Amino acid sequence: GVIRVKSMKYHGEGVDHKETLFNVGEKLYFTAEIEEHDSATNTWKPYVADDLQVELVMLDPWVRTTLVKGQGNKYHAEFY
Fold this sequence. Notes:
By secondary structure, the protein is mainly β. It has one domain (about 5-80). It has strands at about 5-10, 30-40, 45, 55, 60-65, 70, 75-80. A hairpin with a 4-residue loop joins strand 2 and strand 3 (about 45). The protein is elongated and about 45 Å long.
């Protein structure tokens, strides 16, 4: 099947907007809306999985964590 990321947001703890720079050890929040295309109805539906991951990269991967399923098509993670 085909999946897409409909939206993606991230921010530091205590900040409600997207930042471009983060420090090592700072708590971060990541949320993504992920959908799967249903070719039978030609519509996008929530993608359901329990093994999605997000990876933050500088020069080498320094954070890789599993995303937690939320409501509908939303997945999230909290990490340092």
